[in-house]
Design brief:
The chain is mainly α. Helices cover 76% and strands 0% of the residues. Helix 2 crosses helix 3 and helix 4 packs antiparallel against helix 5.
Amino acid sequence: MSRRLARQVAFQTLFQIDLSQMDVETALAQRLEEVALNAENQNYVRQVVQGVHRHVGAIDAQIASISRDWEVHRLGFIDRSILRLAIYEIVFMDDIPAGVAVNEAVELAKEFGDEDSPRFINGLLGTVVRDGEFQ
């Protein structure tokens, strides 16, 4: 299975947690049971979901600092989950190039977001990458 599918599973798990306020470990167990991923991709999903959960305050502060006119809690669940995932990859995962994280986030936005999501996601993540500093 591909990293793209693993990234989609991570996004869907983050979305489920955000939407339903489900426990992280319960959401991970449910989602990983539903999708056949190899061990490496399962580890990636766990790392991202647990990492976003651990750093959600700092990640949301970063989103707030770059998203003028949008408070984090007012963002849609889909866009917020994609941004959290991508910012986690950019800031905390040295083995994933920032450009890959941005491109994959835009692809998720195209597939799951509304018509404005890809441009919105690309713009905010471009700012994160360009500024090169995590708040």
